[in-house]
Amino acid sequence: MFAQPESIDQTRELLASEGYVCGKALATVVFLSLKLGRPLFLEGEAGVGKTEIAKALSKALGRRLIRLQCYEGLDASSAVYEWNFPAQMVAIRTAEAVGSSDRAELNDELFSEDFLIRRPLLEAMSPQEGGPPILLIDELDRTDEPFEAFLLEALSDFQVTIPEIGTIAAEEPPIVILTSNRTREVHDALKRRCLYHWVDYPDFDRELEILNAQVPEATESLSREIVAFVQRLREEDLFKKPGVAETIDWAKCLLALDAVQLSPQVIADTLGAILKYQDDIARVQGSEAARILTEAKATSEMAD
Questions:
Q1: Has residue 1 been placed in a domain?
Q2: Residues 6+ apart with CB under 8 A from 224
Q3: Which of 68, 93, 134, 196 is in Cβ range 3.0-4.6 Å of 58 for a Cys bridge?
Q4: pTM to 2 decimal places
Q5: pLDDT value for 216
């Protein structure tokens, strides 16, 4: 386990050590979350780096990362614990075979820690080697309000109740990071329990710095062209604008193709790395790609 940062600058350096480049505002809210032990709620478009913050902190602090991937219909039992029913059935059959008649003893055995399957929330509240883990509750906006209400209680006291065993409380609360792509509004009651930050698309210089950190093998000229094109592409009327994750993926694809600079043909061949909807791809192909590239190169030269 590594020491937590003692200042905002140390927080930026900590994240940068794992290749995560961020501004002072984001570093400040991360520092305060660690310092005050408050959950951190991050909202923003998909692909801007919300999930990566948890991954970077996990590596930098030497803590285990426990991820609860949210989805529609997620309930408390799936997030907290389940009983290992196949193993319980084997235990029942074994007890019948040996003629055990003590039902109370068998019931206590069946609903003990040996047959408990720990899901992310319960696992995050259990002692971990290396200190409290990073609990990432990813894409919370995909769940419904009943799960939010349950989560509100769980994060307030950092404890969960299992009827057959009792209440289990965290000896040391985990470092909690919640993310949302804002496909719906998360209830204010949950947000009030957290520190909040909107993770926006980075500007040209910041995105170039991120790309240089994540894909250092790319030449400076190619990196600048990539960032300028993606930045200009986000100004188009697209169903899904490319995030920083797509910028990084595209750079890796271009390097795999030994591309040294952007051209309309190279862009047309690799659009699937940055655009994920056919209507968006159809809109940008051909003369549009050439136009955007020309404008992007002009922007890149001005920023140089």
A1: no
A2: 208, 300, 303, 304
A3: 134
A4: 0.87
A5: 95
